[in-house]
Design a protein that fits this description.
By secondary structure, this protein is α/β, with parallel strands linked by helices. The chain has a single domain (about 5-250), classed as Alpha-Beta Barrel (TIM Barrel). It is built from twelve helices and twelve strands. The longest helix has 18 residues, at about 100-115.
Length: about 250
């Protein structure tokens, strides 16, 4: 299949707060056609959506704050229609729900959302940091537990190469479990020899660390990945510089 490169706009959260249009214009000029949206960052939702259209940036995924899946499904639906996007991710399970009861409650909420919205063509998924690749519930790792189907209803995984690495796993091996149910993969590089908690130094542009992106892309294209999505939480060389380095590296591997 033909996979595409996208950008998670969380990477540019500070820039979007200061200058939404200028930031989106620069993203388009870098060559991106596809983005994920992670919150409005103080901007009007309709203005945000109109500017994305102006710069011909298609939204291929929405990251939604965890608690909204419990108390704001109608608001999520409205946002999804405004951005013309039917792929919705719980951005991460909040700390207060990092318990057995919280995981059970989270899965129930996501399954309920999927059951209600799937008839409208929506897909629901989970993105997570490192602990959800190691914490367990009922003998299952959290990410596996959440994405295990219930009565034919499944939750998509959104594997993140950085967080899988920080969790001490080979991202490629971890992705095998989610074969066929991971339409988007977050592409973030990691220097694994550094302290796992040293986020500002161990997270680098794609190609500058230890993640084997060639193997991940080759596997992903054969197992249902539609978008390889660059995300950069921190940067010592400037966020746009890091994003451009990642983009240029991944383009050589597609």
């Amino acid at each position: 299949m033909t996979a595409k490169i996208a950008l998670q706009l969380y990477s540019l959260r500070k820039e979007i707060e200061k200058d939404l249009e200028g930031t989106l214009k620069q993203v388009a000029e870098m060559g991106f056609k596809y983005v994920q949206v992670d919150g409005m960052r103080g901007n009007d939702m309709y203005e945000f959506a109109n500017l994305l259209k102006k710069y011909e940036l298609e939204v291929v995924g929405l990251h939604i704050k965890h608690d909204r899946f419990f108390n704001d499904l109608d608001g999520i639906l409205e946002e999804a229609y405004v951005f013309n996007c039917k792929v919705l991710y719980d951005k991460y399970i909040e700390d207060e729900d990092q318990t057995t009861d919280g995981y059970i409650k989270t899965k129930e909420a996501l399954i309920e959302a999927a059951s209600k919205l799937s008839t409208l063509g929506f897909s629901i998924g989970l993105h997570c940091p490192e602990y959800d690749y190691n914490n367990t519930i009922n003998g299952r790792k959290v990410m596996q537990y959440i994405t295990d189907p219930v009565n034919g209803i499944g939750i998509y995984a959104e594997p993140d190469t950085y967080w899988m690495s920080i969790a001490g796993h080979d991202p490629l091996k971890e992705m095998h479990y989610f074969s066929g149910r991971m339409p988007i993969v977050h592409m973030k590089d990691c220097i694994t020899s550094l302290d796992p908690n040293d986020f500002e130094n161990n997270l680098v542009a794609c190609g500058d660390g230890d993640v084997d992106f060639k193997a991940i892309i080759d596997f992903g294209k054969e197992h249902g990945v539609e978008y390889f999505c660059i995300e950069q939480d921190y940067s010592k060389i400037g966020m746009f510089n890091s994003i451009e380095r990642s983009l240029n590296h991944l383009k050589t591997l597609l």
